[in-house]
Amino acid sequence: MGAPVFAAAISIALLAASASGDFLVGLGSYDVTGPAADVNMMGYADPSQNAAGIHLRLRARSFIVAESGADGRRVAFVNVDSCMGSQAITLKVLSKLKDRRYGDTYSEKNVIISGIHTHSGPGGYLQYVLYIVTSIGFVKQSFNALVDGIFSSIVQAHENLRPGSILLNEGELLDANINRSPSAYLNNPVEERKRYKYNVDKNMVLLKFLDSKRAPIGAFSWFPVHCTSMNRTNELISGDNKGAAAHFMEAWFDKQLEQEDPTIEMLGKPGWTMNASVTIRNRRRLVGDSSSPFIAAFSQSNEGDVSPNTLGAFCADSTVACEFNHSTCDGRNEQCIGRGPGYPDHFASTKIIAQKQLQKAIELFRSAKEQVVGRVNYKQTFVDFTRLKVTLTAANGTTSTVTTCPAAVGFSFAAGTTDGPGAFDFTQGDTKGNAFWRIVRAALKTPNKAQVDCQYPKPILIDTGEMTFPYDWAPSVLPIQISQIGQLIILSVPAEFSTMAGRRLRDAVKETLIAKGRGQFGPKTRVVIAGLSNDYSQYVTTFEEYQIQRYEGASTLFGPHTLSGYLQEFRKLAIALAENSNVDSGPSPPDLLDKQLELLPPVVMDTTPVGVDFGDAKNNVKRGASYRPGDVVEVVFWTGCPRNDLLTEKSFSSVEIEQSDGSWRSLYDDNDWSVRFLWRRPSSLSSRSYATIRWEIPQEVKAGTYRISHFGASKSLFGSVRPFSGSSNSFQVKL
Ligand SMILES: *[C@@H]1O[C@H](CO)[C@@H](O)[C@H](O)[C@H]1NC(C)=O
Ligand SMILES: *[C@@H]1O[C@H](CO)[C@@H](O)[C@H](O)[C@H]1NC(C)=O
Ligand SMILES: *[C@@H]1O[C@H](CO)[C@@H](O)[C@H](O)[C@H]1NC(C)=O
Ligand SMILES: *[C@@H]1O[C@H](CO)[C@@H](O)[C@H](O)[C@H]1NC(C)=O
Question: What is the pLDDT of residues 101-132, one digit of tens each?
Fold first, then answer.
């Protein structure tokens, strides 16, 4: 059905108001994996952490909710398996949506692009200099993969828009997150801390989307925890704990649909754990629905000081806890490392934190009853945070005015965190001859007295807000946005809010809505923070946490009153939402796309030894060999660089079972926990490369004859790129 016909059908069929809980809902999902070789990963800012294969493909998952009726307002929310949102990406996605036939339907006002904060995805897609130093500049391939995938997932959601309804649920998830800077948290006023049982937020909020026959079509949840379960030695692309949870939940749902499966009754029950194998992406079509698979997304929230490394931080391999106030061992930060619940195996830690989120989401999904009712609305503006005047009101009612400052990062920024200590080591970067760093180091600036005073007590390491060579090092104009879907209020922030900063923001907005909303808002109003949305500006701590200058305080860019600035500006948006009044658009953020420098060398060419073709097995499995669940099968293929063809919405790996007619059917691929694709060159300048496909045979595997296949593309000296594939010998899997 074409869009205009579809739209007309909707407006005729649906004149019901959203007061009855009827909305138009649409979901979409698209691959954003990007280049799986050579590109520095975004997050730890470790120059040696470059992509070299895939554990789990990355996706952009979107929902659109619209008021039913001809010109009902709508909100589009995109949960993307990237480290963060990016202004450059937002601008590009919006312009592509405009160029399609959507006109003004989608704009910066009603689109939210929120990163899950995985530290295991290819980087180079932010437009400000500081965030592309370790990726030696901009990486167009990463950028394009994200733009195209986000765009495609929104288009899918748009095309899928149909009558439906939404349920909301929330609940506590314990044991999946801890505070990694408790000494800063402790500097918050004691009366304020007393209001909370924990020093991180434990609440998960979930939306369950239903079609008009009340069949579930998807679920999106918010819960704060860094996606740093995979540590900075990881080179396989992964969505970390949230990306894995999403694959698991989609597989769980698909599996549940297979009525003949005897384990269905167990799924989601307390004590149940997702085994690796349940992730067969045999996407079932929903009964009564034409095209869309079930989509599950796990979104980020106020995770600024929140770690998934729940065992705590210890000195190297010892059982000695790090020094509490500074996270050091013998006065140094490098040896102080956080441990996940699967320590020392970070895959195990990732899986455990993913499963905890998955189980809570399934529980909330199953028990969801509260209907989402009310209007869809949104208010958005851009704020220049460099010299924002902020009026503070003391408890006794007296007011004072303070200002924010141009961006700067403090010394503790270079120390990193217990999730990735000492990550940003500029001196090391320099001696290693990072070409991008050499170009930009001339820009290093000594901050003047006004800036030093404004940022006090932060000792300024890099005065990013006042550095503009070769272009801006840090953002100054940032988007802030409130979206309403009935009783759910989503606050999109372009930053990582600490636990307490997030609580203050949620409270300020809720109080304002209730005070100004003339009964529209009340105790049922839920406010969630969508972190890392639309742009990125590092951290936001409370004024009190800022005084302690841990990593999060040192990375709070606009000075001690950054949070107060957000509270003031969000209150204005909340008033506008409550009164449905217009909001000034504010200054425009710059579009720096044309200025980007890209220094990552392209793939020159791929070769194989004489007599060997791309896709031939280098190390094969023994023909007819027999394996059992729990065994690992590994095959090494001669391959080309994965950057030649990203195989978007396809796969580099495939584990196939032989059918009765002799044909092969793929059961597991790049999207499955049990399969890893590892890529490497024998030496950094070699034109040869190997793909290792590693399959850990899951417990629930089907017995049969299997083979492992690899897909790729090779580049010739003259630049032409040719696809190839190859398969291993066949082998037996017995139970
Ligand atoms: C997962 O595997 C374990 C054995 O490793 C088994 O006991 C359990 O039943 C499996 N779970 C499911 C859901 O199949
Ligand atoms: C941490 O610092 C605070 C404030 O300076 C101090 O009171 C406390 O004793 C320190 N804690 C430890 C464990 O050193
Ligand atoms: C990272 O994880 C790997 C694999 O689980 C482990 O061997 C390594 O010690 C960890 N490194 C750090 C710095 O935590
Ligand atoms: C009100 O509180 C502020 C900050 O705590 C203080 O500086 C000021 O003196 C107080 N003013 C009055 C009139 O009590």
Answer: 898 999 999 999 999 999 999 999 999 998 99
